Request: fold
Amino acid sequence: MSSPAYAHEPWEDGSVPPPPPSSPADGYSQNMHLLSTDEHTGGTNSDLAFSGNLVFAGHYGGFRIIDISEPGTPEELADVHCNGPQGDVSVWGDLLFLSVDTPQSTPSCDGSTNVTASTPGAWEGVRVFDVSDPRAPRFLQAIRTDCGSHTHTLVPREDGGTYIYVASYPLSASNIGPDCKAPFERISVINVPGHDAAAGLAAAVVAEPTVKGIDLFAGSSGDFFACHDIQVLTPRNLAAAACLSQGQLWDITNPLAPRVTADIDTPDVDIWHSAAFTHDGKHVTFGDEYFGPAQEPFGAIWTYAVDNPAVPLSHLRIPRDEPSTYHNFNYIPVAGRNILVSSAYGSGTSVVDLTDPSNPKEIGYYDMRSNQWSTYWYNGLIVANDISRGLDVLRFSSREAAGARRLPMLNPQTQTFLLHR
Reply:
């Protein structure tokens, strides 16, 4: 059923948006509009990356490439079958990188199946593909990393190459092996010397820096040190690391040796899962991946001043009485305002105004009554990857997004520019 919660406004071209679909399964604010769904069922859909009009949608069996130049009628160009949860993706020129965090029987896509880390020849890490022809992606190589790759983050360089920060840890007993056992307290850094197929074939691990100062996290495979997700703000040589038991800020002036500049501890965060900087670089928001009944304040987003992160400026959990968590998110690239777009698992997609970071307000939502893994703003659209249904394309018709910058590409965990207020 619909909700009258938020104002219905014209789109930037002056046209009036259509009313939301009259589905009894959906709840939504009047400024949110579902334009289309490109279904992908039968598996787990995960994270997203963008280049031009293309969306790269990871899943536990590989990744899809979807053309959204016509948002109401997206076209799937390819569905690459390459087993290996959990399918975190990023793009760099002609290259796509795919995280694999479950030991596999083979590094390549052909015949790869889930095995245990103790299986002879077991592999996990990052697979590299040439996506210069989006209708015919080509596997290039597989880079083994200790404990696999739960998530990864690009750290671009001025020479046209990029480093990749690989975050991983022993997820379960099946992940325990010679190079993956508790306590695990490092990341892997991959060097990619360019952005074409030759560079993809030359990509390799060049460093494994230790991450200091993290509290032990109690996992099913033992107590370990680990970072779940890393957000970088390259103009400031900053990173925000969501490290399960706490948050950290890093100085990445030397990207091969990140230096911890702040440990952030907030007792009411269950799992430090994701992070995003505001586009003026002044604030950072962390998300709490909480599995449990609706309970204030768990599952909230927490915002801090980058220059003084000792005490949170605010927190906000979904203002509806249902189990939910802010999962993967980014800030709309618009000067003068801080508007966060986030997936919220069982609460769908949420849009939050954090322009006053001490007084966050949800200003839009679309609740599909399902489970959205990732939701991001990209070039006038909101694009979400639903765990069980597939890709949703939405429109947020509100003046808060007016004047947002258009981007040639987007890896949501990599922020490459500043917008000054």
